[in-house]
Design a protein that fits this description.
The protein has helices spanning 41-44, 53-66, 72-87, and strands at residues 3-13, 26-35, 91-102, 105-115. It has 118 residues and is of the alpha+beta class.
Length: 118
């Protein structure tokens, strides 16, 4: 399986369970590995034969601007399902990191993997 990746994609969103987390947007970091539904793009050199990562980024930014989550787990699941459903990815691994949120903790977050990696 061919995999495209987006590393250290940073975006602003409202996320958290505590009232102070929901007052001001936080910077989160997303790292995605997205399985391609077929591997023809290397031969055809045609964006139609792959997943357009620019459109994936635009769609994620749209979601982060419109929808707010309490848990990084829920956001990760939502984004994983979105990429698989809207872009036809058979497999995705996504990590979401909150940066510098808790004193003494540089990064915290979750990594999930969904779909079948063949």
């Amino acid at each position: 399986m061919d995999i495209i990746f987006l590393n250290e994609f940073r975006a602003e969103t409202i996320i958290g369970v505590y009232p102070w987390e929901r007052e001001v947007p936080q910077t989160i970091q997303l790292d995605l590995e997205i399985g391609l539904p077929h591997s023809r793009a290397g031969t055809t050199d045609d964006v139609a034969d792959t997943i357009d990562y620019g459109k994936v980024v635009e769609r994620i930014q749209q979601v982060l601007g419109e929808k707010h989550f309490s848990l990084v787990e829920a956001l990760a699941e939502h984004l994983a399902q979105l990429v698989m459903t809207e872009f036809g990815a058979p497999w995705i691994k996504i990590s979401i990191t909150k940066l510098g949120l808790i004193r003494g903790v540089k990064r915290l977050g979750i990594t999930i993997e969904r779909g079948a990696k063949s």
